[in-house]
């Protein structure tokens, strides 16, 4: 089988690697150039985009911000999985919020702002503190602002006045006093079968995911069931095929959706060592019409992102259960260059292995690792 992936980053790379044992040949598309590339070497393929689209059995995406002309091209073939509606919802917070509202799925109270003059009235309606998010193209903390008090309205309005809010509106959300962020990665097959990985706990620094713990500590059956029911609502409404990630804020025993990602997801990288079938293989199985793989947990696992730091020894590979996944990128600030997966039979052993990992890494690039490892004990 042949799969074409829109996007040429690390997620396409990992889909390629997962596809090889299955006999699925994966090509990628540099969506900035409309150019077909090898997902590993990034070298141009000797085929045109039109030829690759025609040759593919299935077309999928590694990220949701795909140019509209490419989405339409794939959609017209009938090969695009997940479908265009799901991808558009993941790319546009207005569409995403409206989808959640239409399904009565709990999320933060919000307003859509298309003119900065609307901000004072929205503040009166929602109160403070507020978080403001660009409806498109914002990720890893970019395209976000905070409003802590009404006295900050003038300063924030001045900053936002430089933006074209008619083209890219802003979602203004009431800030939620949540205890933690968790996420659910699941998969739906072409025949409507579901499979779910356990809820995981995510930890961010400066707007970027730095570390994921799987399974999330102290997850009740009620929380897992809430997450799976919300996933099913979304997937059935969208006639979804493939892996979908749903991020939640936990407030006591309730989960509120923060956002959805219609693709394989950073918080699911732990599955490469920690689950029977990784998210990349399960995504390919789903979109190619193959039986889904087991999502059974193999071991407690922590995924640690390598961000902006390309210079360290590999001595940590002597730690039992420690695996490195390198993406082959040039280092620069805030760029995800790879990740570690560290697995263990129990949380106490996982804690000790993460503390050992921390000794091999510069603290400034891994600021959360030591404290989170100690908290697992």
From TrEMBL:
Highest taxon of the lineage: Bacteria
PROSITE patterns on file: ATP_GRASP
E.C. designation(s): 6.3.4.18
SUPFAM superfamilies from the UniProt entry: Glutathione synthetase ATP-binding domain-like (SSF56059), PreATP-grasp domain (SSF52440), Rudiment single hybrid motif (SSF51246)
Pathway, per record: Purine metabolism; IMP biosynthesis via de novo pathway; 5-amino-1-(5-phospho-D-ribosyl)imidazole-4-carboxylate from 5-amino-1-(5-phospho-D-ribosyl)imidazole (N5-CAIR route): step 1/2
Record-level GO BP terms: 'de novo' IMP biosynthetic process
Catalytic activity: 5-amino-1-(5-phospho-beta-D-ribosyl)imidazole + hydrogencarbonate + ATP = 5-carboxyamino-1-(5-phospho-D-ribosyl)imidazole + ADP + phosphate + 2 H(+)
NCBIfam families xref list: PRK06019.1-5 (NF004679), purK (TIGR01161)
Family in the record: Belongs to the PurK/PurT family.
Subunit structure: Homodimer.
Function, as annotated: Catalyzes the ATP-dependent conversion of 5-aminoimidazole ribonucleotide (AIR) and HCO(3)(-) to N5-carboxyaminoimidazole ribonucleotide (N5-CAIR). Catalyzes the ATP-dependent conversion of 5-aminoimidazole ribonucleotide (AIR) and HCO(3)- to N5-carboxyaminoimidazole ribonucleotide (N5-CAIR).
Name recorded for this polypeptide: N5-carboxyaminoimidazole ribonucleotide synthase
Organism of this sequence: Planctobacterium marinum
